[in-house]
Amino acid sequence: MRSSGVGVSRAGASAAHRYRVLAARHRWERRAVRTVLAAGAGVVAAGAATWWTGLVVALVVFVAHLAYTRFRPGRVTAWRRGAWAERRTGRRLARLDPAGFHVLHDRALPDGSNPTTNLDHLVVGLTGVYVVVSRRVRWGAQLRVERRRLWAGPKPAGRVVGVATRAADAVAELLSADAGYDVDVTPMVVVHGARVPREGIEHRGVVFHAAGAIPRAIKTEPVIYTSAQVAAMAAVAETALPPMMETRLVD
């Protein structure tokens, strides 16, 4: 079913879909292992102590295994956290005045007949056009630029720079071809979890902001487009960048 209207696609929809698909794999096997482990630990504890001790131990083992399978590092956890970050960014972007800013979420970038790359968020507004990438970084890590590299705590975090830049270039090419003049697109990364300076960070042309700062960072930039230009570019983006879930459902 085709979505219509600017901004109707849900933030994080395709990431959440991917998470559900991956989480469904081997679900019954995980449940069986969890049950066997809990029951075995409970029986041993009950034999060594009392029945209620066995019940408590079984419950603890069951919950511990559930938590382990849910939060252990891996693709499933990464997709779940990615969907959460995109949804949270979407709620922040919803604070922008719809009279001056059009927001699209989870759009398929031009990539032949079978798009596989999605654009987390696109903002077309009076102050410019922004490709917004959502990223969850380890909680409490300090985002910084050091020795010409981007770091999140002790780990390098520069891979997202290329992702944001390529997406911005693709959108700029698309909008410029339709408008007949160069449309500059600003690549931005919304960081969840890590600490980001209040004024943000710029690294290799990509701007990084904490989630709470993103609406203000966009709306306080100088006005460079008219409402008519904004509406025209938003209409082009809506048509040329279909919701990512739409391409998945077609497949």
Describe the protein's topology.
Blueprint: H1 13-24, H2 27-48, H3 51-71, H4 75-93, E1 101-108, E2 118-125, E3 128-136, E4 143-146, E5 149-152, E6 155-156, H5 159-179, E7 185-192, E8 201-203, E9 206-210, H6 214-219, H7 227-240, H8 244-250
Helix pairs in contact: 1-4, 2-3, 5-7
The average pLDDT score comes to: 84
Strand arrangement, largest sheet?
1-2-3-7-9-8
Classify the secondary structure makeup into a structural class: alpha+beta
How would you sum up the major sheet?
6 strands, mixed
Helix content: 40-55%
Number of helical segments with 4 or more residues: 8
Work out the radius of gyration. Answer: 22 Å
Low-confidence stretches: 1-8
What separation lies between the terminal Cα atoms? 13 Å
The tally of beta strands, per DSSP, is 9
Principal-axes shape call: elongated
> Beta-strand percentage?
15-25%
- Element order: H for helix, E for strand: HHHHEEEEEEHEEEHHH
